Amino acid sequence: MCTLFHATISITLLVLLLLSSTSNAAINPQSSLSLVNQFLAPQNVVRKAVGMKPLIWDEKVANYAKWYANQRRFDCDLRHSNGPYGENIFWGSGDEWTPAQAVLEWVLEKKWYSYGSNSCQGGEQCGHYTQVVWNNTERVGCARVVCSGGKGVFMTCNYDPPGNYVGQKPY
Ligand SMILES: *[C@@H]1O[C@H](CO)[C@@H](O)[C@H](O)[C@H]1NC(C)=O
Q: Which Pfam families match (predicted)?
Protein backbone atom coordinates (compact mmCIF):
# COMPACT_ATOMS: atom_id res chain seq x y z
CA MET A 1 0.00 0.00 0.00
CA CYS A 2 2.69 2.40 1.09
CA THR A 3 4.79 1.65 -1.99
CA LEU A 4 1.77 2.04 -4.23
CA PHE A 5 1.00 5.39 -2.63
CA HIS A 6 4.54 6.66 -3.22
CA ALA A 7 4.54 5.36 -6.77
CA THR A 8 1.30 7.24 -7.39
CA ILE A 9 2.74 10.47 -6.00
CA SER A 10 5.95 10.39 -8.00
CA ILE A 11 4.19 9.43 -11.21
CA THR A 12 1.74 12.30 -10.68
CA LEU A 13 4.68 14.69 -10.32
CA LEU A 14 6.25 13.27 -13.41
CA VAL A 15 3.10 13.67 -15.47
CA LEU A 16 2.84 17.28 -14.29
CA LEU A 17 6.44 17.84 -15.31
CA LEU A 18 5.77 16.31 -18.72
CA LEU A 19 2.65 18.40 -19.23
CA SER A 20 4.41 21.62 -18.23
CA SER A 21 7.33 20.95 -20.58
CA THR A 22 4.93 20.14 -23.42
CA SER A 23 2.80 23.27 -22.98
CA ASN A 24 5.88 25.50 -22.63
CA ALA A 25 7.21 24.08 -25.86
CA ALA A 26 3.90 24.69 -27.60
CA ILE A 27 3.77 28.33 -26.52
CA ASN A 28 7.41 29.27 -26.85
CA PRO A 29 10.14 26.91 -28.00
CA GLN A 30 12.75 29.14 -26.33
CA SER A 31 11.29 28.48 -22.90
CA SER A 32 10.97 24.72 -23.28
CA LEU A 33 13.08 22.65 -20.94
CA SER A 34 16.51 22.05 -22.37
CA LEU A 35 17.35 18.57 -23.58
CA VAL A 36 19.51 18.14 -20.49
CA ASN A 37 16.72 19.01 -18.12
CA GLN A 38 14.22 16.87 -19.98
CA PHE A 39 16.43 13.89 -19.24
CA LEU A 40 17.56 15.00 -15.80
CA ALA A 41 14.58 16.55 -14.05
CA PRO A 42 12.17 13.58 -14.17
CA GLN A 43 14.90 11.17 -13.05
CA ASN A 44 15.65 13.40 -10.08
CA VAL A 45 11.96 13.61 -9.18
CA VAL A 46 11.88 9.81 -9.00
CA ARG A 47 15.12 9.69 -6.96
CA LYS A 48 13.80 12.27 -4.54
CA ALA A 49 10.65 10.20 -3.99
CA VAL A 50 12.84 7.50 -2.41
CA GLY A 51 15.22 9.88 -0.63
CA MET A 52 18.15 9.73 -3.07
CA LYS A 53 20.38 12.69 -3.91
CA PRO A 54 19.87 14.21 -7.37
CA LEU A 55 22.06 13.03 -10.23
CA ILE A 56 24.49 15.57 -11.67
CA TRP A 57 24.75 16.01 -15.45
CA ASP A 58 28.30 15.15 -16.52
CA GLU A 59 29.79 16.26 -19.85
CA LYS A 60 32.19 13.35 -20.11
CA VAL A 61 29.40 10.83 -19.58
CA ALA A 62 27.14 12.82 -21.93
CA ASN A 63 29.83 12.73 -24.61
CA TYR A 64 29.99 8.95 -24.29
CA ALA A 65 26.17 8.78 -24.63
CA LYS A 66 26.34 11.04 -27.70
CA TRP A 67 29.09 8.93 -29.23
CA TYR A 68 27.08 5.76 -28.71
CA ALA A 69 23.78 7.23 -29.92
CA ASN A 70 25.61 8.14 -33.11
CA GLN A 71 26.73 4.51 -33.47
CA ARG A 72 23.03 3.57 -33.55
CA ARG A 73 21.98 6.33 -35.95
CA PHE A 74 21.87 4.05 -39.00
CA ASP A 75 20.17 0.96 -37.52
CA CYS A 76 18.34 2.26 -34.42
CA ASP A 77 18.82 -1.19 -32.83
CA LEU A 78 17.87 -1.43 -29.17
CA ARG A 79 21.33 -2.68 -28.28
CA HIS A 80 23.63 -1.85 -25.36
CA SER A 81 27.10 -0.32 -25.72
CA ASN A 82 28.64 -2.61 -23.07
CA GLY A 83 30.84 0.25 -21.90
CA PRO A 84 32.08 1.29 -18.45
CA TYR A 85 28.82 2.97 -17.39
CA GLY A 86 25.35 1.91 -16.37
CA GLU A 87 23.03 2.32 -19.34
CA ASN A 88 19.31 2.72 -20.03
CA ILE A 89 18.26 2.69 -23.67
CA PHE A 90 15.01 3.48 -25.46
CA TRP A 91 13.65 3.01 -28.96
CA GLY A 92 10.41 4.32 -30.44
CA SER A 93 9.04 4.44 -33.99
CA GLY A 94 8.47 7.78 -35.67
CA ASP A 95 10.52 10.85 -34.86
CA GLU A 96 8.71 12.60 -32.03
CA TRP A 97 9.68 10.73 -28.86
CA THR A 98 11.02 13.11 -26.22
CA PRO A 99 13.60 12.53 -23.49
CA ALA A 100 10.91 12.86 -20.83
CA GLN A 101 8.89 10.10 -22.52
CA ALA A 102 11.89 7.76 -22.50
CA VAL A 103 12.48 8.45 -18.82
CA LEU A 104 8.80 7.90 -18.08
CA GLU A 105 8.89 4.49 -19.75
CA TRP A 106 11.89 3.50 -17.60
CA VAL A 107 10.58 4.75 -14.28
CA LEU A 108 7.06 3.34 -14.68
CA GLU A 109 8.76 0.00 -13.92
CA LYS A 110 8.60 1.12 -10.31
CA LYS A 111 5.18 -0.50 -10.11
CA TRP A 112 6.72 -3.95 -10.65
CA TYR A 113 9.55 -3.51 -8.18
CA SER A 114 9.34 -4.74 -4.61
CA TYR A 115 11.90 -3.02 -2.39
CA GLY A 116 11.42 -5.37 0.57
CA SER A 117 12.47 -8.45 -1.36
CA ASN A 118 14.53 -6.52 -3.96
CA SER A 119 12.65 -8.36 -6.68
CA CYS A 120 10.70 -7.67 -9.84
CA GLN A 121 7.30 -9.11 -10.69
CA GLY A 122 7.65 -12.17 -12.94
CA GLY A 123 7.84 -11.40 -16.64
CA GLU A 124 8.45 -7.67 -16.05
CA GLN A 125 11.56 -5.49 -16.10
CA CYS A 126 12.70 -3.30 -13.21
CA GLY A 127 16.34 -2.66 -14.07
CA HIS A 128 15.83 0.68 -15.77
CA TYR A 129 14.06 1.97 -12.68
CA THR A 130 16.60 0.55 -10.22
CA GLN A 131 19.45 2.17 -12.20
CA VAL A 132 17.71 5.54 -12.04
CA VAL A 133 17.36 5.38 -8.23
CA TRP A 134 20.68 3.58 -7.54
CA ASN A 135 22.17 5.33 -4.49
CA ASN A 136 25.82 5.14 -5.46
CA THR A 137 25.26 6.51 -8.95
CA GLU A 138 26.19 10.22 -8.96
CA ARG A 139 26.52 11.32 -12.57
CA VAL A 140 24.44 10.92 -15.70
CA GLY A 141 24.70 11.90 -19.34
CA CYS A 142 22.19 11.13 -22.09
CA ALA A 143 21.65 11.58 -25.80
CA ARG A 144 18.87 11.32 -28.39
CA VAL A 145 19.12 10.65 -32.11
CA VAL A 146 16.52 10.43 -34.84
CA CYS A 147 17.72 7.48 -36.92
CA SER A 148 18.09 7.61 -40.66
CA GLY A 149 15.60 6.00 -43.05
CA GLY A 150 12.62 6.52 -40.74
CA LYS A 151 13.91 3.83 -38.35
CA GLY A 152 12.74 5.72 -35.28
CA VAL A 153 14.26 7.49 -32.29
CA PHE A 154 17.05 6.08 -30.13
CA MET A 155 17.89 7.47 -26.70
CA THR A 156 20.47 6.43 -24.17
CA CYS A 157 21.43 7.50 -20.65
CA ASN A 158 24.71 6.47 -19.06
CA TYR A 159 25.28 6.32 -15.30
CA ASP A 160 28.48 6.73 -13.30
CA PRO A 161 29.28 4.84 -11.18
CA PRO A 162 27.07 2.11 -12.66
CA GLY A 163 24.26 0.54 -10.63
CA ASN A 164 22.34 -2.73 -10.78
CA TYR A 165 24.86 -4.95 -9.03
CA VAL A 166 23.31 -8.40 -8.69
CA GLY A 167 22.27 -9.15 -5.12
CA GLN A 168 22.54 -5.50 -3.98
CA LYS A 169 19.62 -3.25 -3.20
CA PRO A 170 19.56 0.10 -5.02
CA TYR A 171 19.48 1.95 -1.69
C1 LIG B 1 23.41 6.39 0.11
O2 LIG B 1 24.78 6.62 -0.05
C3 LIG B 1 25.31 7.52 0.90
C4 LIG B 1 26.73 7.85 0.49
O5 LIG B 1 27.46 6.71 0.15
C6 LIG B 1 25.20 6.89 2.27
O7 LIG B 1 25.73 7.75 3.26
C8 LIG B 1 23.72 6.63 2.56
O9 LIG B 1 23.57 5.96 3.78
C10 LIG B 1 23.10 5.82 1.45
N11 LIG B 1 21.66 5.80 1.64
C12 LIG B 1 20.97 4.68 1.68
C13 LIG B 1 19.51 4.84 1.91
O14 LIG B 1 21.47 3.59 1.53
A: CAP
